[in-house]
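Tokens in:
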């Protein structure tokens, strides 16, 4: 490493964010940047640790430990420290097709497994990654690079989310003709409509990369839902291979009394409609303006609903979370290098606390029913405790006497997804696993139908964006091997 004692000499420093009171007035990204000098100092904190866990991409207790796409983190940290930004960009692109996305929306499991993080705050890996790619765009180093030779093979990809985009890049670079089918009006899938603009700017960041892919030869066909607008058989008849990257978009609903009341929406419907309204410069069809908002569910989607509701100008916001409040520090059953399950205040909660004076989350709480006439007016909740049942599994048990009624004219359900939607998979006759996901082994990705592969959430279930990037790249490699008999793709 460039400075072996850097981790001793320097403390962790992140760039400031725009103040919560300022940023909730617009939809712009809110992270600021450090100077190059400070970024080089932060890169110097990367240790010569011998066995860097940050880029291992291992699953421990069902959670990612280290980078799932195996970013060569110590190497580009060293290059940044030495001021070799162009070389750092080249090293970053060896494993990551879209660092501008991961640098913005990835939860950074790499930092959770940083060796320095055992005793000190970890290296600012995510921020350095983002700084490298943003500098690459600013300097004009990132330009279209179409393949020099075309194979004549045609590949269809269904879904333009993280897995689909990664597969498209790799297969296009291998020289195949790639067509990506997307049912929405714009490419990007989850990146376009599942992540709010203040976390990932659609015009400045996402659309810029889409245009680059088009310039390199990738064809996007939007407003086309395969299995409905386009017969599924077309994939088998007109293409040499297909990769299914349709995500796990079947929502989990909440079967409680009065669920049918107006004003109760699935979180993704709310977020999608909001982004569409921003891009078309119209008013959102589902608005939190002047309303008491109750969000049921935690995680990133729940946080995004908090941030979006605040920007609409909600009257109040409460986030109901059935899990307990995490501890401030790692527990004995959560050792390094596992992902640290500790209490965190994300951007949405920070903004809510700034406006209303407290964290909006109610932990160990669940909704029991909704009330109102035609329009929802309240959410009835009760506190729970987790106890083992006869099978030894922890389940939530209601605590009598802890009932509460929360005013609500808008309720958003952010409680996850059940798996991929059925119609396309049924049309193709693809075999599925017991969880309803497409049956395809990790590392191989081929389905029960010859020439058809699957990657991302539709194969592994709802997961991190960075795992979808991992699977899209690997599925492209196996697809290329199927088409050509051998592959040079990583």
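Residues out:
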């Amino acid at each position: 490493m460039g400075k072996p004692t850097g981790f001793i000499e320097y403390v962790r420093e992140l760039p400031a964010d725009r103040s919560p009171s300022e940023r909730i007035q617009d939809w712009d990204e809110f992270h600021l940047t450090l100077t190059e000098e400070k970024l080089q100092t932060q890169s110097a904190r990367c240790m010569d640790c011998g066995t860097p866990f940050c880029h291992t991409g291992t699953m421990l207790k069902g959670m990612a430990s280290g980078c799932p796409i195996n970013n060569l983190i110590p190497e580009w940290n060293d290059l940044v420290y030495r001021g070799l930004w162009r070389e750092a960009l080249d090293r970053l692109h060896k494993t990551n097709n879209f660092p501008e996305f991961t640098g913005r929306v990835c939860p950074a499991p790499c930092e959770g497994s940083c060796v320095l993080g055992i005793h000190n705050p970890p290296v600012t890996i995510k921020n350095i990654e983002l700084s490298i790619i943003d500098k690459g765009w600013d300097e004009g180093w990132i330009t279209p690079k179409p393949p020099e030779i075309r194979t004549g093979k045609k590949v269809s990809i269904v879904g333009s989310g993280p897995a689909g985009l990664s597969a498209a890049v790799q297969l296009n670079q291998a020289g195949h003709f790639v067509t990506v089918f997307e049912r929405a009006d714009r490419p990007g899938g989850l990146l376009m409509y599942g992540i709010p603009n203040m976390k990932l700017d659609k015009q400045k960041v996402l659309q810029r990369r889409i245009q680059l892919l088009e310039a390199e030869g990738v064809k996007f066909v939007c407003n086309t839902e395969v299995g409905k607008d386009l017969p599924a058989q077309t994939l088998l008849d007109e293409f040499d291979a297909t990769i299914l990257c349709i995500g796990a978009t079947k929502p989990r609903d909440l079967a409680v009394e009065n669920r049918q009341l107006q004003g109760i929406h699935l979180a993704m419907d709310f977020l999608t409609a909001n982004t569409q309204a921003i891009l078309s410069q119209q008013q959102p069809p589902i608005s939190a303006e002047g309303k008491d908002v109750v969000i049921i569910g935690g995680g990133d989607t729940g946080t995004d609903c908090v941030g979006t509701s605040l920007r609409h100008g909600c009257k109040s916001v409460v986030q109901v979370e059935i899990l307990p409040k995490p501890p401030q520090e790692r527990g004995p059953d959560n050792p390094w290098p596992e992902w640290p399950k500790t209490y965190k205040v994300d951007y949405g909660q920070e903004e809510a606390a700034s406006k209303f004076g407290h964290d909006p989350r109610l932990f160990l709480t669940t909704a029991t029913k909704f009330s109102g006439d035609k329009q929802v007016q309240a959410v009835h909740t009760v506190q729970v405790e987790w106890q083992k049942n006869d099978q030894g599994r922890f389940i939530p048990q209601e605590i009598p006497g802890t009932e509460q009624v929360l005013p609500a004219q808008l309720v958003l359900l952010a409680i996850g997804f059940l798996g991929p939607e059925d119609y396309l998979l049924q049309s193709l006759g693809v075999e599925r696993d017991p969880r309803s996901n497409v049956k395809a082994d990790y590392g191989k990705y081929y389905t029960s139908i010859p020439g058809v592969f699957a990657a991302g959430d539709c194969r592994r279930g709802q997961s991190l964006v960075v795992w979808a990037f991992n699977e899209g790249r690997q599925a492209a490699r196996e697809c290329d091997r199927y088409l050509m008999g051998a592959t040079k793709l990583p």
